[in-house]
Amino acid sequence: MSLTDWEGVAGGDPSFVGLSNFGGLATDGIFRQTFSNNVKFTLFVLVAQTVVSLLLALLLVKNTRVNVFYRVLYFFPTIISSVSVALAWILMYDPNIGALNILLERAGLGGLQRSWLGDRGTAIFSLAFVQFWQHTGQVMIIFIAGLQAIPKELYEAARVEGANRWQTFRYVTWPLLAPAAAIVVAYTTIQSFRAFDLVIALTDGGPSYATEILSTWIYHVAFRDNNFGYASAGAVVFMVILGLLTALQFRVLRVDR
């Protein structure tokens, strides 16, 4: 379908156009902006989610009642539907009655108040923060599983050798946690590139394509513009990008799949 020009069932039969759809993507300013948005969104979520979830896992790795309670608490947002999460954060980000702007005003930081989802400069990062908030607990569980799989004898040996906490983490914990880290990085990247429902519910790609990502762009081109051939070409590029990124991540982390 990516090699055709087709407007859907109502538009008649598809016509073969070769690689012209892919050529159009290369010069499409909106597609380039969409890809840039996706990179910003993914990098923000990947860095924030990996760092915060790893810190939480290190703090909550022991199976105590208190730790189990906090694990459940941090994991809870993951089981809430993205639409419900979006509705809650729309209220949080509301420029007039939103809790975020109210807190800034009461803290004497009224100059930082803004329309978080309506400002082109902050909209994509506001979306990324919601994605980070919802899935950090899930990533934390992956790290906890990886940490609990490390033999305790290795920590005892490191302690006998006089290693401090940083040295123990660097030379014992992190190398053995690499498989879990690879899963986290790949999973977070894929989730960030396909954060379709969250974007549709919060901004629908606006304002002026500032929060349009590849998955929502494909949807809009296909079902709003009725350009299924062009959308299919974008979907092929989307899948190639995800495949290359995942392969690169596993190679960098040197994990045998």
The proportion of strand residues reads under 5%
Number of helices: 11
Estimate the helix proportion, in percent: 55-70%
Q: Output mean pLDDT.
A: 92
Task: Give the H and E element order.
Answer: EEHHHHHHHHHHH
**Could you say which overall geometry the principal axes of the C-alpha atoms support?**
globular
Query: CATH H-level name... which superfamily?
Result: MetI-like
- Sheet with the most strands, sense and barrel status: 2 strands, antiparallel
How far apart the termini lie comes to 32 Å
Low-confidence stretches: none
Structure description:
This protein is mostly helical and 257 residues long. The protein has one domain: MetI-like (MetI-like fold, Orthogonal Bundle), CATH 1.10.3720.10. The protein is 68% helix and 2% strand. The chain has eleven helices and two strands; from the N terminus they run E-E-H-H-H-H-H-H-H-H-H-H-H. It has helices at 20-27, 29-59, 65-75, 82-93, 99-106, 123-148, 152-160, 165-193, 196-202, 214-223, 228-252, and strands at residues 4-5, 15-16. Strands 1-2 form a two-stranded antiparallel ribbon. The chain is globular, with a radius of gyration of 22 Å.
What are the main properties of this structure?
2 strands; mainly alpha; 257 residues; 11 helices; 2% strand; globular; 68% helix
What layout of secondary structure does this protein have?
Blueprint: E1 4-5, E2 15-16, H1 20-27, H2 29-59, H3 65-75, H4 82-93, H5 99-106, H6 123-148, H7 152-160, H8 165-193, H9 196-202, H10 214-223, H11 228-252
Antiparallel strand pairs: 1-2
Domain ABC transmembrane type-1: 35-249
Membrane topology: Multi-pass membrane protein
Keywords: Cell membrane, Membrane, Transmembrane, Transmembrane helix, Transport
